Predict the structure.
Amino acid sequence: MATAHTDHHHEETFISKYIFSQDHKMISKQFLITGMIMAVIGMIMSRCSVFNSDGKESPFGFLTLPVETSGLLMEFLIRTCIWLVTIHGTIMVFFLLTGGLSGTFANLLIPFQIGARDMASGFINMLSYWFFLRSSIVYDRFSIC
């Protein structure tokens, strides 16, 4: 007697496949994309910290200062540049190198190296990405304000 085998595959939606995925390969892509976005934010902060105090042309026209810049304005601009460089370094170290690259390669390569199909706990792995993303957003919001 032949029994009909019914296959109950769960259709994945866009949200369950790409946003709230528990697959280690997709989570590594999420870490990589977030790390790349943080790298762009860090590079923008680094480039904005460069200004030319002698009035000549700078990489950004709006950052060229007149020759007769007062001491108070110059002190403000120097403090702003130091602040931007500090935030740039923090973003690049903590959110690009530590989170972005470590999260990407750990989630992608470790299961392949040990011969596993996936990480041991996909839900906790997914939460690690969402905590990383949330900390990136909170840090950027409070460092800019």
